[in-house]
Design brief:
With about 260 residues, this protein is α+β, with helices and mostly antiparallel strands. Helix content is about 50%, strand content about 20%. The model has no long low-confidence stretch (mean pLDDT about 85).
Length: about 260
C-alpha cells in the first residue's frame, strides 16, 4: 500500500509538471493537457499492481529469471498503459466535443514504450523502498543469545548466559548452576567472574555466590537481614553484608 501510494503521488507530480510545461510553451490548452496527462496517470494507477505481482512471484529466484520476468512485464505494462489512456482520451475528448486522433499516439508507441519501461522500473523501486520501510526491526528478543564457555577440565561447555542461574565458589574452582540441572566446574576465582559477568547482570550476593539477576523468581527473608534467593527450583543465599545486591534484586518488597 505504501509503494502504491508513492507511485500515485510521484506520477501525479510528473503529470502536473508536464501540464504546466506544455501549456507554458504553447503546446496545447490547459483542459486538453489535463486530459492527456490525467488519462496517463489513471492508467498507471490501474496498472501499478503488475510490478508488485512480478516482484512477489519471482522473489528468491535466480537474478536472470527475475530480470526476464520484469522485462516481459514491462512490455505488457507499456502496451496496457497506452491502450488504456487511448481509451480514456477517446471518451473524455468525445465528452467535451473535441477531436482526438488515436493513430497519432499509436505511431509514437516506441517512444511511449521507452518511457513506460522506465516508469515500470520506478514502480519496482518504489515497492522495494516501501518494503524496506515496512520491514519489522529486529526485536530485542531476536538478538543473538549471549554465550559463555565453561572449561570443565579438558572439556568445553558452551552455554547461554540466560541458562546460568548462579555461580558458587568451590575451593580453587567455581560451580555453575545451570537451568537444566547440570553443575559443571571451572578453575577460576569467583572475583574474576564477578568482573567479567557483572555487566551481563550477575550480582555478588554472598562471598561465595554470584547470581543471575534475570533468573531470580523470589526473595524469602531468613531473619537478621539475610535472604534466600529463589531461582526457579534452585536457591542461593543473599547475605546482609551485600545490601547493594538486595537493592538490585528488588528489595524487601519482592517475594
Amino acid at each position: 500500500m505504501i509503494g502504491w501510494a508513492v507511485i500515485l503521488v510521484v506520477a501525479a507530480a510528473v503529470c502536473l509538471l508536464n501540464v504546466v510545461g506544455f501549456t507554458q510553451h504553447g503546446r496545447g490548452r490547459l483542459g486538453e493537457q489535463l486530459i492527456y496527462e490525467g488519462s496517463s496517470w489513471l492508467s498507471i494507477a490501474l496498472l501499478a499492481w503488475l510490478p508488485w505481482t512480478i516482484l512477489r512471484a519471482t522473489r528468491g529466484g535466480p537474478w536472470w529469471a527475475q530480470g526476464l520476468s520484469h522485462l516481459g512485464a514491462a512490455l505488457v505494462f507499456s502496451a496496457a498503459h497506452v491502450g488504456l489512456f487511448i481509451l480514456f482520451r477517446l471518451v473524455l475528448f468525445a465528452a467535451v466535443s473535441q477531436p482526438y486522433d488515436p493513430w497519432a499516439t499509436l505511431g509514437a508507441f516506441p517512444f511511449e514504450a521507452g518511457k513506460d519501461v522506465i516508469a515500470y522500473g520506478l514502480c519496482v523501486g518504489a515497492y522495494l523502498f516501501a518494503g524496506l520501510l515496512a520491514a519489522p526491526r529486529p526485536a530485542a528478543d531476536d538478538a543473538p543469545a549471549a554465550l559463555f564457555d565453561i572449561r570443565d577440565g579438558s572439556r568445553l561447555v558452551r552455554v547461554e548466559l540466560a541458562d546460568v542461574l548462579a555461580i558458587s565458589a568451590a575451593g580453587n574452582y567455581v560451580e555453575f548452576h545451570l537451568r537444566d540441572g547440570r553443575r559443571p566446574l571451572m578453575r577460576s576465582a569467583l572475583s574474576a567472574l564477578e568482573q567479567e559477568l557483572g555487566p551481563a547482570g550477575f550480582v555478588r550476593t554472598h562471598r561465595s555466590w554470584l547470581v543471575n539477576a534475570a533468573a531470580v523468581t523470589g526473595l524469602v527473608p531468613e531473619g537478621s537481614g539475610d535472604f534466600q534467593i529463589e531461582l526457579g527450583e534452585g536457591a542461593a543465599p543473599l547475605s546482609r553484608r551485600y545490601p547493594d545486591a538486595l537493592s538490585r534484586l528488588g528489595g524487601r518488597g519482592r517475594r
